[in-house]
Design goal:
Length: 473
């Protein structure tokens, strides 16, 4: 067995406990090991990061991708907004995404002579989050003081679309041109279901709360995706759209940068990556019969990473989140709304949260996202009274601790979980790069199951998933 991979370190943030309070990482405990993702799926692509070249490899890949981009409409006297989203800063430490953004600014300026290039970084429900990232990665300095975070409660701008008036964020669109700078990581596949993934930020990160809530409350997964497409296709947005640049990501790391003046062409390629590579990891996680899920990553509860898969997706891994014939995943806000006061679903079509998760050990994860649904339905142990107090102060998580218990240490939490569940299989969501930190019994199971999963995805599931989305294999 391999030694564990060093997890992503804790980070100072108003949304998490102080890093000094994170005394022990779950991967440091006895019985933990790691599996390289290329051991599980040898056909995963080669990565440029992490690697010997560091973030310089990302800069080089961005420069190469931009050689094929038409920037002729951008004039020296114009203004350009590079549009970013907060999720990109949580990928593999955040440095690769930040480097792509810096390179975009440098290349646009060098090729067009335009000096008025600004960064507009959107957020989710943590309205000050991107302000932290802008300072942490030096984006405020690189953009000459023209880098700001934008929130869905900021001043809006009406956008006339073929389905009526929708609302964007005014500061997103206050330039002559916009550059859509995103990534291919699947993230919330339980929400978008890998439909128009590349277009989604136009209905989310760049939209006012009234419009973006369509994803969460009004229409739910699958149906809501047309709002982002409607906004992007509007005459207003099309008059400003210059091009898109995506950090392309597989579960094992950054595989390159993809840029295109045609967002829908890029979207087809993003769909291929999301279904082909992440589909294998999620299908493999669905083969886990029992485990303890350990959260140990600087992100809100639902967004902690393991092998490119977030906890919210693992909570629904008992169903095929990519199969559009299945109407509702085990978790979305829309699904959650169909639960009654007794904590039971009111519709028979709603699957339960993944029954393989016998317990959750919350060693380190942030506030800023409503997560009480998870502690209510999955037995949860939170490490440290300080972390419990933080969640009790969070307006979005006032009942999270009502369904959880507190352990003094990571060691005590894991011992409690072992004794209570009877399983020694542990899946750690700690953002380990290039591999996955797990307990030895779970490593054995994953290595055993992976070959059959790979064959099933290649021959059966992937053709179906792509056919459902109108994308050629």
């Amino acid at each position: 067995m391999r030694p564990p991979i060093t997890p992503i370190p804790p980070r100072k943030s108003q949304y998490g406990i102080d890093p000094s309070l994170v005394k022990t990482r779950v991967s440091e405990l006895p019985g933990m090991t790691s599996v390289l993702l290329k051991e599980l799926f040898p056909d995963l692509p080669e990565v440029i990061y992490p690697g010997e070249g560091g973030v310089a490899a990302v800069r080089k890949a961005t420069e190469e991708a931009l050689k094929n981009i038409d920037m002729s409409r951008i004039k020296p006297e114009h203004s350009v907004n590079i549009l970013a989203s907060h999720h990109g800063f949580t990928l593999l430490g955040g440095e690769p995404y930040a480097e792509m953004l810096k390179t975009l600014k440098d290349v646009i300026e060098a090729r067009t002579g335009c000096k008025n290039i600004r960064l507009r970084a959107g957020v989710g429900l943590r309205f000050r989050e991107t302000e932290e990232y802008i300072k942490r990665y030096g984006l405020d300095k690189h953009f000459d003081g023209k880098a700001i975070g934008v929130a869905p409660i900021d001043q809006g701008i009406p956008i006339e679309t073929e389905i009526g008036t929708l609302y964007g964020i005014r500061k997103v669109y206050d330039a002559d041109w916009i550059v859509h700078a995103h990534n291919s990581d699947v993230r919330e596949v339980h929400f978008h279901r890998q439909v128009d993934r590349a277009v989604k930020p136009f209905g989310m990160s760049y939209a006012r709360i009234e419009t973006r809530s369509t994803y969460h409350q009004n229409l739910g997964p699958r149906a809501a995706n047309f709002t982002a497409r409607a906004i992007f296709d509007s005459p207003f947005v099309q008059s400003k759209f210059a091009f898109a640049s995506f950090l392309t990501v597989a579960p094992n790391g950054i595989i390159g940068v993809d840029a295109d003046n045609n967002l829908y062409a890029l979207n087809d390629r993003v769909t291929q990556i999301g279904c082909r590579y992440y589909g294998k990891m999620m299908t493999l996680f669905g083969e886990i019969d029992e485990c303890i899920a350990a959260l140990d990553f600087p992100c809100p509860v639902v967004y902690v990473f393991s092998a490119g898969v977030i906890y919210a997706n693992f909570a629904g891994a008992n169903t095929d989140l990519y199969d559009l014939d299945l109407p509702l995943p085990a978790y979305t806000w829309y699904t959650e709304a169909f639960y009654g006061k007794a904590g039971k679903p009111l519709l028979k079509d709603i699957p339960p949260l993944n029954p393989a998760i016998k317990m959750c050990v919350h060693n380190y994860a942030w506030t800023g996202y409503p997560s009480a649904f998870f502690s209510e339905h999955i037995p949860t142990v939170v490490v440290g009274q300080e972390q419990a107090d933080l969640f009790n102060r969070d307006p979005q998580n006032l009942t999270y601790m009502k369904h959880a218990v507190v352990a003094e240490t990571t060691e005590a939490a894991m011992e409690f979980a072992y004794k209570t569940t009877g399983t020694r299989k542990v899946l750690i969501f700690d953002g380990a790069m290039g591999g996955i930190n797990v307990s030895e019994p779970l490593a054995e199971l994953l290595l055993k199951k992976a070959p059959a999963v790979s064959e099933r995805v290649d021959n059966e599931l992937l053709p179906k998933w792509l056919r459902q989305r109108g994308v050629k294999l």
